[in-house]
Amino acid sequence: MSAPIDLEALRRELHAHPEVSGQERATAARIAQELRALQPDELLTAVGGHGILASFGTDPQGPQVLVRCELDALPIQEVNTMAHLSTAPGVSHKCGHDGHAAMVVGLAEKLAEQRPGKGQCHLLFQPAEENGAGAAAVLADPRMQGRKFGLVLALHNLPGYPMGSVVVCKGAFTASVNSLVIKLAGRTAHAAEPEHGSNPAMAIARIMEGALALQHNDPEGDHLRVVTVVHVCIGSPDYGIAAGYGELHLTVRCWNDEELRELEQEIEQLARNEARRHGLGVQVDPCFTFKANRNADAAVERVIQAAKATGHAVIQREHPFKWGEDFGLFTARYPGCMFGLGAGEDQPALHNPDYDFPDALIPHGIAVFEAAVRDFLAS
Q1: Which of 373, 361, 372, 365 is nearest to 159 (CA)?
Q2: Are 176 and 255 in contact (CB under 8 A)?
Q3: Euclidean distance between CA atoms 46 and 55, whole angstroms
Q4: 176: part of which helix (H) or strand (E)?
């Protein structure tokens, strides 16, 4: 057996060389290098883009379990000063996908040391989670067709929770999320004579006000509605021209897909009404869609037992997290569980420019994953 993988060094190497969604070529190549040394029973690359699927076990008729992690980073400028600082301007691992990937490489190492005698464990290193495109692309890959998993698992580190605590929620674990781009087309005019054009400014202001009034941002309630303005653009910085075009970009989120669709329809109708009132053309385009991640009760119980068996405290939530996660496409198709792993109570929040995944969390993730996987394969 070769020397153990230095997972902390691997994680920091990945952190120093981040790549955004859809561009994870070097990240995938580096992980594939480690996996090849472990000699998985099957290794697929370029899955759904730059994804990797490493399988351990040679019994396709036995139980099948999939463990998924992510590869991509975010378009955020890092402000830290540590030695493994991001070398890519404007790009950094501010969600901890570098740590998640290191955990699953560590799980691969455990499975290589003691390969499943019954069934198979498949490790998916997924591209493009942050923009919601990766899971769909992986599931559409021809080499994934016909595969059936009895259990799918994923985790996310959670700053603000005690280090190593396992956070679970039955039913939805993450919200249903969509983004809306509202495009309003009018007609430019001389800035001195705006009455001769159709300026979308007032319509954008009224749509923004009306959309925000539709929200009910109560994370402890059963009918969450969050509307967030993320970008507004109108006209151009040419001071003799009254604007003739504008866009309003929103994210909307609810606990389930059905209520989200209702909210989207209300906002779209609001936009069409205002466009008609102001004589504007209107187009509403959805993008960056994340289905609610719905956990199966039996899968949650398996994770709870794995946490207890490995000495981890379990925290059970009554309501989902408000962020989106494209693992929801997997749990919509297969029984599964996404769970949280506490990253420490004093850590910067996810997507903060000073966030850095805590290396001390790596063995905790490996232990819980391995316990849940081996328990499932033995069932």
Answers
A1: 361
A2: yes
A3: 15
A4: strand 176-185
pLDDT score, position 3: 84
Contact 233, 246 (CB under 8 A): yes
C-beta of residue 203 within 8 angstroms of C-beta of residue 187: no
Q: At what angle do helices 7-16 and 362-378 cross, to 10 degrees?
A: 110
Q: What is the largest CA-CA distance in the chain?
A: 79
- One-letter amino acid of 148: K
Beta pairing, strands 42-47 & 64-70 = unpaired
What is the spatial distance between Cα 273 and Cα 268, in angstroms, rounded to a whole number?
A: 9
Which residue reads 């899968």 in tokens? 299
| 240 and 191 Cβ atoms separated by less than 8 Å | yes
Residues of the chain falling short of pLDDT 70: 1
H-only helix segments in the chain? 7-16, 25-38, 97-113, 134-140, 201-213, 257-277, 297-309, 328-333, 362-378
Closest CA to 73 of 48, 54, 35, 100: 100
Domains, the chain, ordered by start: 7-173+292-378 (3.40.630.10), 176-290 (3.30.70.360)
Q: What Cα–Cα distance (Å) separates residue 346 from each residue in 113, 157, 158, 342, 358?
A: 35, 13, 11, 11, 11
For 36, 54, 67, the CA distances from 251, given in Å and listed in that order, are: 40, 35, 29
Residue type, 23: Q
Q: Cα-flanking dihedrals φ and ψ of residue 35, to 5°?
A: -70, -40
Burial of 237 per CB tally in 10 Å (0-12, 13-18, 19+):
exposed
Instruction: Please give the Cα distance from 103 to 357 (Å, whole number).
Output: 12
DSSP state, residue 146: T
With contact defined as beta carbons under 8 Å apart, do 232 and 247 qualify?
yes
